[in-house]
Design a protein that fits this description.
Blueprint: H1 2-28, H2 47-58, E1 69-72, E2 75-78, E3 87-91, E4 96-99, E5 102-105, E6 111-114, E7 122-124, E8 150-153, E9 158-161, H3 167-176, H4 204-213, H5 221-229, E10 280-282, E11 285-287, E12 295-301, E13 310-311, E14 322-326, E15 342-346, E16 354-355, E17 359-361
Parallel strand pairs: 8-13, 12-16
Antiparallel strand pairs: 1-2, 2-3, 4-5, 6-9, 7-8, 9-17, 10-11, 12-14, 14-15
């Protein structure tokens, strides 16, 4: 009887010991993807959940509040909460970088970022000139006005050369990329002996070819005027102060002749960037010599403005051999260097007062995030 009772108690104790071991065993061998209940009814995160939270902390939204903007590579994203993929807002253009949740200028050295106009655009045309083309003896004055006022919207930013293309840069292009060398047919020619001066005696095709070798373009007429003024209607790139030889190289008195000993320094252009008082200042930096020094070829054909509002206008007419030149030169007066003044020249025109600069047009990048923009 005593032996039977002893065996019964041993059985009870063994059963109780087995029950005591079960919680410990279960918690130590829990399968991945399950959660262990706690005494208060909550769940302890499993290993996968913990890893996801850690990855979130290392992502573009680490340390940011919901709704904040951040950078994911070159894309701007909006943070939407822990454990969720951020929403794509936009991808920066190839002339921009993503910085602090916004697209910031990233033009190459020697170029200045010029922003888009925004939907309000800017006004081009001041009704200054009758449309005409040709020399004084031709008597051809065209018909109508050359610069009827109208609104222009530029939808993308661009990078503009900070200076006019120099003789030194042209020499490099001649040596490496097949550019045609300017002929040394004038005493004021800058190529090849004045490397820091604007290259001159270049026609439209020579200028256009140079820009294209560096994945750039001649500026459109609208880009050029927007870059020179910022759209506020100013008379000259620096504002309304009457031009002097501190602002630019131009002809202060009566022009003797287009090729005469005129200009602030007795004839011929100046070194690029010499007249800093005349710079057009953008947030990304100054652009030099948009007035005076040398005229600059632009992409558009010389045709009268229609007077109609336009978006990203480009007016190239293959059947017209005349193209727009802008900015005036060392051998032009204060009127010729007005930011709104339109000049025109035959496609093959090569003179010592005419050069050019280039722009780098923005291109779209491929989106780097999977989420659709909101």
């Amino acid at each position: 009887m005593n032996r039977s009772r002893e065996l019964l108690w041993l059985s009870v104790l063994a059963a109780l010991a087995g029950c005591a071991e079960q919680p410990s065993s279960a918690s130590g061998t829990e399968d991945a993807g399950t959660k262990t209940p706690t005494l208060d009814g909550g769940d302890v995160p499993d290993a996968a959940t913990t890893a996801a939270a850690a990855a979130e902390e290392k992502g573009p939204c680490a340390g940011k509040t919901e709704g904040a903007l951040a950078c994911d590579g070159e894309s701007v994203v909006r943070c939407v909460g822990a454990g969720r993929e951020p929403e794509a807002v936009k991808t920066c253009l190839d002339i921009e970088r993503c910085e602090a949740g916004a697209c910031a200028p990233a033009c190459p050295e020697g170029e200045v970022y010029v922003p888009a106009t925004g939907p309000a655009g800017f006004k081009m045309g001041k009704n200054l000139s009758a449309f005409g083309f040709g020399n004084r003896k031709s008597g051809y004055h065209g018909k109508g006005r050359a610069d009827l006022p109208h609104k222009v919207v530029l939808t993308k930013p661009f990078c503009m050369d900070q200076t006019e293309v120099t003789a030194g840069a042209m020499k490099k292009c001649v040596q490496e990329k097949g550019c045609k060398a300017p002929q040394r047919t004038d005493r004021w020619v800058t190529y090849p002996d004045k490397p820091d001066y604007p290259v001159n005696l270049v026609d439209y095709p020579m200028s256009k070819y140079y820009c294209e070798q560096y994945e750039k373009s001649l500026p459109t007429e609208a880009q050029w005027e927007w870059a020179a003024t910022g759209g506020d209607g100013r008379s000259w790139p620096w504002g309304e102060e009457e031009p002097t030889c501190e602002h630019t190289d131009f002809t202060q008195a009566i022009l003797i002749s287009p090729g005469g000993d005129s200009g602030c320094h007795g004839g011929g252009p100046s070194k690029v960037g010499t007249h800093r008082k005349g710079d057009k200042i953008w947030p990304d930096g100054p652009i030099h010599d948009l007035a005076g020094n040398v005229w600059e070829w632009v992409l558009d054909s010389y045709v009268p403005y229609s007077g109609k509002d336009e978006v990203d206008p480009v007016h190239v007419r293959s059947n017209i051999g005349n193209y727009v030149v802008r900015g005036g030169g060392w051998n032009r007066s204060g009127r010729g260097i007005l930011a709104a003044f339109r000049g025109g020249a035959i496609v093959s025109y090569k003179v010592p007062g005419l050069g050019f600069r280039c722009v780098r047009n923005a291109k779209e990048r491929a989106a780097t995030t999977a989420s659709a923009p909101h």
